[in-house]
Amino acid sequence: MWGIAMQNRQSQGAWEGEQAQMLLALCAAVLLCWMFFDIFVYWTTWTLYWLWKMVDFPFIH
Q1: Half-sphere exposure (CA, 13 Å, Cβ side) for 29?
Q2: Structure confidence at residue 28 (pLDDT)
Q3: What separation in angstroms does the CA of 23 have from each of 35, 36, 43?
Q4: What are phi and psi of 50, to 5 degrees?
């Protein structure tokens, strides 16, 4: 009876928890953004420019 109720959890290592995985994913995303920043900025501005051109009708203004 007491053996089932008093089980101890094994401690996890520093890089085995969910927080460590989230930190590594965040660091990987920041690294990728830093490596491809100029390409990212170019294509996002290009996309936003053409999206705005599609919805900016002269007769609305």
Answers
A1: 6
A2: 97
A3: 18, 20, 27
A4: -75, -30
